[in-house]
Design goal:
The protein has 239 residues and is mostly helical. It has twelve helices and no strands. It has a domain at 70-236: Tetracycline Repressor, domain 2, CATH 1.10.357.10. Helix 7 packs across helix 9 (157-180) and helix 9 (157-180) packs antiparallel against helix 10. The longest helix is centred in the first third of the chain and has 26 residues, at 12-37.
């Protein structure tokens, strides 16, 4: 009995789809390896072990550790972007969308000591990788754009741009500090540091402060349900 060629082999589109899924799985495993072992001790073998495949399979999708590093860098930025998208689905006004940005960047599922330490080690490689520089530039532009989109409801054009720039620098700085200091920086403390800066840069009359407080509380509650769920955690990390 013979089988048709359609059942014997995959179509090009099927092969591309399976390849994309495999690359995504390996990118996730590579990110987890960096979180577990640190960048220097992450090897293709360890990535394969976490993904349940051989080193040869890893090499088939990523020609060297540099290509794997780029994939890890993309995944780390994608996690934050996806978290923001999820929270934004439940934000109803500029206050809540602004706090969706803040909470997405610092919610405990992603913002924890191991991940922050991994981020610091990854960031140190940016200067030596043009691919990672492009990924980071795109990430910075996305955060700047997201912040400007909400801050324009509170500030004029010039202050919107400058405030967005300062807040994006603070986000980066808190991640670096959390990865370097001996004492862990909690999610709540990081968000409170952002709140202090937001209220210094934006109108802070009594009514505005109250709306910011309400927006922060709502976004943290939404995050605890969506981003803190076991299903989301298992989808994001296996470590």
């Amino acid at each position: 009995m013979t089988t048709s060629s359609a059942t014997r082999k995959q179509t090009p589109s099927q092969a591309r789809s399976i390849g994309s899924i495999r690359r995504a799985e390996l990118s996730r495993a590579a990110f987890e390896a960096v979180v577990l072992y640190g960048l220097r001790k992450t090897t293709l073998e360890k990535v394969g072990d976490l993904a349940g495949v051989s080193k040869g399979v890893v090499l088939h999708h990523f020609k060297d550790k540099g290509a794997l590093l780029e994939a890890v860098f993309r995944r780390s930025n994608t996690l934050l972007g996806d978290a923001f998208v999820e929270l934004c689905k439940h934000a109803d006004n500029p206050y809540e969308r602004l706090w969706a940005i803040v909470v997405a960047n610092f919610f405990g599922t992603i913002f924890n000591r191991k991940v922050c330490q991994a981020w610091v080690s990854l960031s140190a490689e940016v200067a030596h990788s043009s691919q990672c520089q492009r990924v980071q530039a795109a990430c910075n532009a996305r955060i700047q754009s997201n912040l400007c989109h909400e801050l324009k409801h509170f500030l004029d054009d010039e202050d919107t741009q400058r405030s967005a720039h300062l807040l994006s620098l603070l986000i980066d700085g808190l991640w670096v500090r959390a990865g370097l200091q001996a004492e862990p920086l909690t999610s709540a403390n990081a968000i409170s540091d952002m709140e202090y800066a937001v209220l210094k840069l934006l109108p802070n009359d009594k009514q505005s402060v109250a709306r910011h407080n309400e927006a922060r509380q709502k976004m943290e509650n939404v995050a605890s349900i969506l981003l803190g769920s076991k299903a989301y955690t298992n989808q994001t990390f296996r470590v």
